[in-house]
Amino acid sequence: MCGRFQLSVKGKQISERFNVEVFDKFYKPSFNCAPSQKLPVITNDHPAKLSFFQWGLIPYWAKDPIIGSRNINTRSETISEKPSFKSAYKNRRCLIPANGFYEWQKDSDHTPYRIFLKDEKLFAFAGIWETWKNAENRIINSFSIITTNANSLVADIHNRMPVILKPEDEDKWLMETDQTLLNKLLVPYAIGRMEAYTISKKVNSPKNNNPEIVIPVTIGQQSLFNE
Question: Is 2 assigned a catalytic role?
Answer without folding.
Answer: yes
